[in-house]
Design goal:
Blueprint (H helix, E strand, L loop, with lengths): L1 E5 L20 E2 L2 E2 H11 L4 E6 L3 H11 L4 E5 L6 H7 L9 E4 L3 E4 L11 E7 L7 E6 L2 E7 L8 E9 L2 H13 L10 H11 L3 E5 L2 E4 L3 H12 L12 E2 L3 E3 L4 E3 L2 E2 L3 E3 L4 E3 L2 E3 L1 E3 L4 E3 L2 E3 L2 E2 L4 E3 L6 E2 L4 E3 L3
Parallel strand pairs: 1-4, 1-6, 4-5, 8-12, 14-17, 15-18, 16-19, 17-20, 18-21, 19-22, 20-23, 21-24, 22-25, 24-26, 25-27
Antiparallel strand pairs: 2-3, 6-11, 7-13, 8-11, 9-10
């Protein structure tokens, strides 16, 4: 099976971290969001991928090529005109081979082998309390009858969570061609849900599959929540001398941690330095430095420096912050 991963977005909700990095390279539980996605695909024997880049796409391509042997093709979405437009940009990958479309700001845990024997297209869904942030599906029995993008009036709580198995990609390509060439936009953008609805109207049958292990990384609060979830399956490889480690945590072997209390739910990334500090429920990114501070529910960007007192902060790459009374 071939995967298509759109990662062209700017990630405004994750600023200041996305001032210097594309959203999918923001760190969670010791590695970039995209790393967790690609690890899941490799474990489940996905054979190849098309990655749709845009904002700082050269960094995405460099990361993938340096860390993965999965055959990947990179295409550029020059203009941000919606998810439907992004997938249309990768239309050369929509041929006779079934594809799995995976949104690049989510971490998922689901057995994809159930799709290998499916004769129908299928959408990953999860029941949510507030569907207004998502596309949702309405079903009749086993099959989808209608898709609605971010409904302001509740019509369904079955949210589409960013996993789309397309059994007949050529039909999707035809639908995307139609909405692009006829300038059919919803809320100013070309929506993938509109193309999928067009497929349904043409007779393409869609089922759904439940994705309980789905984690949004699109904003700081949900990034920390995902960090907590992922750390529950990890433990520190070592307890640095003179430190107290309260699991679950991730401490990269190249990090320097001295005279500190780490955890629970702390992620210390490659090359980071933590001294004389308490770090809990936080992400310390690559090469960041934390001295003489107590951090809680914080995200410290790459090469940033924080010193001082107790705080809950969210600072971007290469920042220098001194916390005083």
């Amino acid at each position: 099976m071939h995967a298509i991963i759109p990662v062209a977005g700017i990630g405004t909700r994750l600023r200041p971290h996305t001032h210097t990095l594309p959203k999918v390279l923001v760190n969670v539980a010791g590695k970039p969001i995209l790393g967790h996605i690609l690890d899941a695909l490799v474990r489940q024997n996905i054979e190849s991928a098309t990655i749709i880049t845009g904002y700082k796409g050269d960094l995405v391509e460099q990361y993938v090529q340096n860390n993965y042997s999965l055959p990947c093709r990179f295409v550029v979405q020059d203009e941000m005109m919606g998810l439907g437009h992004a997938i249309w940009t990768a239309r050369e990958s929509l041929n006779n081979t079934p594809v799995l479309i995976i949104l690049g700001d989510t971490v998922f845990e689901v057995d994809l082998s159930i799709l290998n024997t499916s004769q129908f297209s299928s959408l990953g869904v999860k029941t949510v309390d507030d569907p207004r942030r998502f596309g949702v599906v309405i079903t009749n029995g086993a099959f989808v009858t209608r898709l609605v993008e971010k409904p302001q009036t509740p019509v369904s709580n079955n949210a589409i969570v960013g996993l789309y198995y397309i059994a007949h990609p050529k039909v999707l390509r035809e639908s995307l061609d139609y909405i692009i060439h006829n300038d059919l936009r919803t809320k100013g953008e070309f929506q993938l849900t509109d193309a999928l609805q067009m497929m349904v109207d043409k007779g393409e049958k869609f089922t759904t599959f439940t994705v309980d292990g789905w984690h949004d990384c699109g904003q700081p609060d949900t990034l920390l929540e995902t960090n907590r979830y992922l750390l529950n399956s990890m433990s520190a490889r070592f307890a640095p001398e003179g430190c107290v480690v309260v699991p679950p945590v991730h401490i990269d072997p190249t990090a320097v941690v001295e005279h500190s209390v780490i955890g629970p739910f702390a992620s210390i990334s490659a090359g980071a330095v933590v001294r004389n500090s308490i770090v809990r429920d936080s992400i310390i990114c690559d090469q960041a430095t934390v001295n003489d501070v107590s951090l809680d529910r914080s995200i410290i960007g790459e090469n940033a420096t924080v010193t001082g007192r107790f705080a809950s902060i969210n600072i971007g790459d290469a920042s220098i912050v001194k916390l005083t009374n």
